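Figure-free illustration: sequence to structure, shown twice.
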Amino acid sequence: IREALKVLAAKGLVLSRPRVGTIVCNEDDWNIIDPQVLAWHAPHALDDKLFDAILETRRAIEPLVAELAATRATLQEIADLEATWRGMAGAGEDLAAFSRSDIAFHQIVYAASHNPIFRQIGNLIDTGLKFSLEATAVISLDRRMEAVAAHREVVEALRMRNADAARGAANKILDLAARDLVSAKKLKSN
């Protein structure tokens, strides 16, 4: 139990003090950038504010990551990205398969940036992306196919080593994600 409490304390979830005991910390003190903390935070408890923060973070980072990946990706990483994109394109109505491929796609792009800090940030983004995909599960297949097309643009930009096109395609993906989150919120509120 002591070791478990140490782990929780390191993540900002609890505070242990001699002669006081252990208390649960205020949610504002939680280390929300820890992928485990974000994963433990039940998806239904993720509010609009946190979804917006995740999207804002993605907007700040992913275009640069895609740009770097366009100049640094290995041929194997580009081939892996292509295969993962095919998984997205072939998923059809299978949301679980689509989500697995989408998350893997982003992991490959982060890895292809060859920046170890961005790669670690990518782990956090993956968790947020998973919750975003669950939240937007209500969107139509046509909308998902628009995202597939935008992801294809990233693949092509990396293949052509076109950093500007990679940045533009990443921004397009983020615009579609923002639109889908807004649509999902409207559908769920009706």
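We now fold a second protein in the same way, so the two outputs can be compared directly.
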Amino acid sequence: MEALIIAAGRGSRLNHRFSPKPLVPIFGLCLIERIILRAKLAGITSFKIVVGYKSDKIMKKIGNGDRYGVHVDYIFNPEWEKGNGVSVYKSKAFLKENFILLMADHLFDDSILRNLQQIEPESDCCILCVDRKLNSDHFNIDDITKIWVESNEVQKIGKGLDRFNAIDTGIFLCSPVIFNALEESISKGKYSLSEANQILSNRGKLKTYDIGDNFWIDVDDRETLQKAKKILLKQLKKPTDGPISKSLNRKISVMISSKLSHLNIKPNYLTLISFFLAVLSGLFFFLGGYPKIVIGGFMAQLSSILDGCDGEIARLKFKQSKFGGYLDRVLDRYADSLIILGMTVACFRTMEMSWVLLVGFLALTGSFMISYTAIQYDELLISKAFSKKKRLRIGRDSRLFIVFIGAVLNQLFVALIVLALVSNVECIRRLFVLRNEYKLS
């Protein structure tokens, strides 16, 4: 299915130096790039973009879409000042089948488009995605297009409605019938898309799809631009984050990632930097002596924090890859091994007891096993069927924080013992949790 993106307007309220508005940057990608890449995640690879104001800048930035792995065609609207309805109507000659209609300044979850494409619209009907969360703080109630919905059908639509129960998200599944309504509204001197939608509504041809808890935002001014940034950063948190990640690491890594996103840095480079810090940590432990051990502890904790940045940058800039995830997991295992090896050698030199090696072996084994069980456990953790009371995850963030505390307190052997106990007990706990959950499924 093709997508039509309306990017013809001026967007004067944002008044940003990166004019026109579709080119306003957010964490290294401009608005329209985020729209294209988000739609691509939903399986859409063919786009038509209606341009008008400063069209040459948009066309130069996006090109033919090759750099994004999609195909892009352009439709020029010389009457872009009249309204978005005219921009949609200009695409009539190019769209003969159902299509997705998007706005170049509306960010959204790709799951909305995935679900929307699964709906088979009734003949000669359009579907408008609506938000029923009227108390959300990511929009200005005076600026939004309001809707009154009954039995999943739009009854009234417009910004001036006093009585409404849903909000227009600017995301549509359209059939060519939209052009008939647009032609009628334009002939009456009414150029907004909402006017045509009201005509469809009067004929019972405008249905709704409730987006539920999915995210969307209309980046209309500086205030909503800042809200969009905050939401995107908040989305970097993962349900599988451990207690240290939630309370410390993620807060720092997100701040770092937000700054690095403006640079042309690849996520895999950050993976390698995190690994290099872990290697240095193990080396400083191996060399021994309290000052070096403290440095090793700080290196381990810094490596743990930066270990989140690669994935955050990948998600922020749509650079996720299977290889990147695989590289991260493999290097994490090597990193853990080198850190525990360095700690074990340092303790053995100091204590000269053979059972130190056994504790080091148990810590290393537990580290490997807790990582081995992570995939299935995390799948269960993410599942809505998994009780929130059971959502405990002791992972790499906790293990490296134990290393950090042990190093600062000059208690590496105690840290090794805690690592051995915590990691192996956690593995056993996961086995029981998985057994019980699989019995219920």
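Summary for the second example: DSSP finds 16 helices and 13 strands in the chain.
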